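Researcher: Structure for this, please.
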Amino acid sequence: MPNRSTRSICWIPTWDPVHHGVGLEHLLLDTESADAVVLALDEAQGPFRLRYRLAWDDAWRLREARLEAATQDATRSLVLQADGQGHWQDGDGRPIDELDGCIDIDIWPTPFTNSFPLWRRPMAVGERREFRMAWVCAPELTVQPQAQAYTRLAERLYRFESLDGSGFTVELPVDEDGIVLDYPGLFRRAPDPR
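Model: Predicted structure, token format:
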């Protein structure tokens, strides 16, 4: 959990073998909000920019997400509001019933949102928990429920599993605040210049 009032964190995308290391995410993190910009390349749509702003309550439950994604062809926006109890609405206040039961958000492409379930429900080493996430995919800004699991392997190491049938699993090292350092094959943390 963030123990400082403000942090600046950067990740470099590494998922595209043709453009390995091209792009950057810059995240400004406060105790109950985050503001980030991601510059990346998508195989199908080319370069894109994603801006997201998240706000949560003091129990690490997401309350609002504002996202905007821009490609050469289109700019899309998405506003999600959550009550912290598993009920979601769009920016116009209409319920999003398919997200019922989701407490946390997981945004592609950023490793930051992997921290929410770890902060909200701390685990003992060896413990495994399953979560139902509101999964947002950029640059399309689609949202759907997705089952995921985390297992705490060591003090600062977790195994992530996607339970969507793909079999995807990865080990995620985290820093002292529970924020992903490196996401093997997808992101690596940029060194802090200080």
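Researcher: Any notable elements?
Model: The helical segments are 115-120. Residues 6-189 form one domain.
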